[in-house]
Amino acid sequence: MFVHFSPSLKKSLFAASCLILFALPGALPCPAAEYPGRAVDVVVPFAPGGGADNFFRAFRGALAKELNVPTNIVNRAGGGGVVGTSFVVNAKADGYTLAGFELLTYLTPQIITPKTVPYQVLKDLKPIAHLAYEPLMLVVRADLEAKTLEDFLAYARKNPGKLLAATSGLGSQNRVDLELLKVATGTQIRFVSFASGGEAMTNLLGGHVDLICGATVTASRSHLKAGKVRALAVFTPERLAEFPDVPTTREKGLATVNLNMTYGLLGPKGLAPEVVERVSQATKAALTAEDTVANLKKLGYYVEFSTPGQLEERLKKDFGLLTEVAKRAGLIPSPDNLKVTGKQDK
Amino acid sequence: MDLIQNLFFGFGVCLQPINLLYCFLGVLIGTLVGVLPGIGPPGALALLIPVTGQIRPESSIIMLCGIMYGAMYGGSTTSILVNIPGEAASVMTSLDGYQMARQGRAGPALGISAFGSFIAGSLSIFGLVLFAPTLSGFALKFGPPEYFSLMIFSFAILIFVTGGSLVKGLLMALLGIAMGTIGLDPHAGVNRFTFNQPALMDGLGLVQAVIGLFGVSEILVSLETFVQGEIYETKVKGLLPTRQDWHDSLMPILRATGIGFFLGAIPGIGVLIPTFLSYGLEKRIARDPSKFGKGFIAGVAAPEAANNAAAGGALIPMLSLGIPTGASTAIVLGALMIQGIQPGPTLITDNPQVFWGLVASLYIGNVMLLALNLPLIGLWVSLLKIPYYLLSVLILLFCLIGSYGINYAAADILIMTIFGFIGYIAKKQDFELTPMVFGLVLGPMLENALRRSLVISSGSFAIFVSRPISLVFLAMSLSFLIWNFFFKKRATTMISED
What we know:
- The structure holds two protein chains of two kinds.
- Chain A is an alpha/beta fold.
- Helices cover 42% and strands 19% of the residues of chain A.
- The longest helix of chain A is centred in the last third of the chain and has 22 residues.
- Chain B has one domain.
- Chain B is built from 21 helices and two strands.
């Protein structure tokens, strides 16, 4: 019944069928590879060990679980966040390179030193998600006479230019919050710039400065508990459960002093809407998982999710607000406000 | 006694097999990272943070700190063998270490650096345990005016340490300071010489500069003569330090340990200044200062002991106050915080296994490093037998990888190359390179300290003399300069009168 195949014919048939079998998958129309099909990089534009880096590393695991692919933190420090951010601006818009950002440090370089920023903050990156905020507090050295916020402000009003605040750079949170405080209370407080929040705290502990208007809870916690510094106010809308005795700026009538560290995700400009949606959904799921929330809370981060649209609105609004503050506080360098000797009388 | 009990507890934690493994991994990675130019402890630490999330806190801190002081052991290897410091900490070692290698004494140089590092590391453990609270309180007293005076003191020592022409040394230092101004002005946010390049906003970068100045320039110089054979004609004499070497090095090691530990505990000082000051001190009090720079073993032993002691001292503010002293300690603190451990005054009571386990691991880690490094001396020395035309290419390759690996930025390779040419010209014209490195590091620190101090004092210069610590350093600088210029002259006139 069977046709007799000669050995060489058999071999050829076998070879031909192998070829067809292997070629087939390539010839068939394949379904579009689901995003994400491979590992995703979150670029953090700061050095490891810094506040922003710590947050994204803490959040990374939850995000990876929701995206179902390995998620890596890539550090590209430099230029106060500009180097890492421009890296993502120029990256391929395929969704595998995302930018982790901190709101203030993202917006302020363009306001204060626009020539050094090779991108437009509101246009060249697509907002994806707002993730969490880290509360900031007004902390003073323990041996300062003022024991409460009211005493402190009274002292500041009576002695203009006597108090000295430590800040961590021109556009840093503690500088901007200090300016907001000065505007809201009409006081004159001097400031000195250090290279990082850690250095600012070290100098506060050593008594070389009087206050930090915007220290993170994580950085201050052990010193507060040891009694080396005192917290006079916190900039969140509600009192912190961990420090119930520390009033909020809102309840003391200083609601404008409300900038905390805010963390979120951005993507390159041309990111496809499906990809944005997918990441947004993943972050939402990650941020609502109970253990993630508890874990982040333990580390001092309070989750707060926003959709891409809400984040975009927020960025626009904060950009306008910060431009105002910068102009009024003289944060934008000009020959007038470059004083070498440090006499700060505005 | 409480201390003994705690130490036993710590050893109990550290001697668990899993922690021994992490200790070994840490010191091994640290040594490798130290040997390779460019990639320093911060790079390795950053890569390993995700790993630490999976293991217990005491294991991760044992491993991470192992990397930190392990790198201090490894950094001297390339300094001694091929005159290319692995990091800033090893710049001083290359001065005498490389000369020793040229004389066929690379083995003893590597040996004394390993032993010196071991002695310093072990002694700094005692310092850590006994003096942590007092020293951290003292370190906090260093505000901007004290930093300024300390920098002035360092510059005064520089004048003395510079071998060769003083004018040329100062010229290089000034050039270094000038190049150190490149970047964002910290106080007013003005761009200085950055030409709006984000890559330059944080300054040129010390590591790229060191690799370029020392490494690339060395290759460029050697390109001029076709080197066919080995780089060292003299036979390698012996692999371990001799009795005479020990006699010359023991006291320098002990003194350098003190200086390094003390200064390392001050946040932000870094490792270059302790190594520099200890070298300067040894040269100052030596019976025959002219031996330094020509291959004198104390010139290797002192900086090596100082940098290990400084690494130990840097742990004090980190552990007792939760304050980072530099990039590496900042990363370790971050890793601890991610694991939910709160660094600070409460660390020792809330997490005793972390603190005492670490203290015990410092000793065990140093023992491991000694055991690791001594047998390797033979291996390193035999590497010198590779024909130079091959060795130089390998060195250049490692320099490229090292400088690119810092930030994955092509700009860093360009910076390294430019410094390479600067170093080449300097070597041809007999200018010393160390003052330039010094200027690059110290210039920005000096300026920042000056400006911040003036802000604090609202413009008054009196702040530098009204604060006791600052006054002491300034007085020391002044007396040092006076002694050098007047008494030295008298000494030479006395000799010429004979």
